[in-house]
Amino acid sequence: MTFSQLDRAARGRLRTLSKETAEVVGKHLVMAGRLIDTEPELAYEHAQAAVRRAGRVDVVREAAGLTAYRTGRYAEALRELRTVRRLNGSSEHLAIMADCERGLGRPERALALAASDEARTLDDVARTELAIVVSGARVDLGELDAALAALGHVPAAGTRGELGLRVLQARAAVLELLGRTDEAAELLARVDASALGSALGEDDEDVVVYDLAEGADDLAEGVDDVDDAPTGDVSSGDPAPEHAPTDEPDAEGAPASDGRDEARDAGADR
Questions:
Q1: How much is the pLDDT for 153?
Q2: What is the dihedral of CA 52, 53, 58, 60, to 10 degrees?
Q3: Which residues, 6+ apart, have CB-to-CB distance to 195 below 8 Å?
């Protein structure tokens, strides 16, 4: 049988739903998380199936935002992550929101988010992720020296582990653009490729395990058939909200250069 896990915090958010609905939504969230790196479009469909059943739950809208981001739906991702921020007050996805602005061709707005009071509330990891996005936004504007400077004073968390490797890769990319190829090569030589593939496989008592083999046909039907899905939180009887109003255009922007993969990968592993 195939199993996956949902952490206790996410499970707690689903307690406002009926037991049956929470079980289905939880499975869709698990599938979205499992597929986001390998099959992001299918992950997006699972997230949308969860939204149709539990559109008022923050972790559901978070999944919708992250999968929209990974599939290049930057305007939609911005709307969803703003909704998450309104629902739970968290600014943890500010770097992804800024990168969405880049994807929509608005690097100046990405820089404005990075300079906001909200950005100053971020922890060291999130500040490092934001620095990578800021560097990319400076590249978009042709400000290569500023792009390099943005990566020059990251918090200590940005010098260690996988996040530190992404900072090195971002620095190397800017150095290449500046024509400083020897320095770029030196940085890349320090990147241990095996570290990028390392993962912790710890057991945790604060997780709930779903049997994704059981009821797999019903789960697939939930992705494929919009009309058969309930349109709101079953426990409350309320309809699921439409996307939050926004003054942003719905047109999707072309992917921005340098820094997008780093910020995206940092935000997606939720």
A1: 85
A2: -70
A3: 161, 162, 165
Same domain, 111 and 79: no
Give the residue from 181, 199, 217 where a domain finishes.
199
Whole-number pLDDT of residue 125 = 95
Instruction: Please check whether residue 3 is in contact with residue 210, taking contact to mean a CB–CB distance below 8 angstroms.
Output: yes
At 165, which CATH number? 1.25.40
Amino acid making up residue 257? S
Per-residue pLDDT of 222-232, as tens digits, reads: 565 433 444 44
8 Å CB contact between 259 and 135: yes
The count of residues in the chain is: 270
* Residues 236 and 86: beta-carbon distance below 8 Å: no
Nearest to 166 by CA among 261, 34, 66: 261
Low-confidence ranges of the chain (pLDDT < 50): 1-4, 194-196, 198-211, 213, 225-258, 262-270
Q: Residue 23 sits in which domain range?
A: 7-90+225-255
Residue 111 lies in a domain: yes
Please give the span between the terminal C-alpha atoms of the chain, in angstroms, as a whole number.
Answer: 24
Who contacts 203 (Cβ-Cβ below 8 Å, separation ≥6)? none
Tell me, yes or no, whether 208 lies in a domain. Answer: no
| Contact by Cβ (8 Å): 150, 131 | yes
- 63-69: long-range contacts, CB 8 A cutoff, minimum separation 24: 63/29, 63/32, 63/33, 63/270, 65/93, 65/96, 66/36, 66/93, 66/96, 66/267, 66/268, 66/270, 67/32, 67/36, 67/40, 67/43, 68/44, 69/96, 69/99, 69/100, 69/264, 69/267, 69/268
Domains identified in the chain, total number: 2
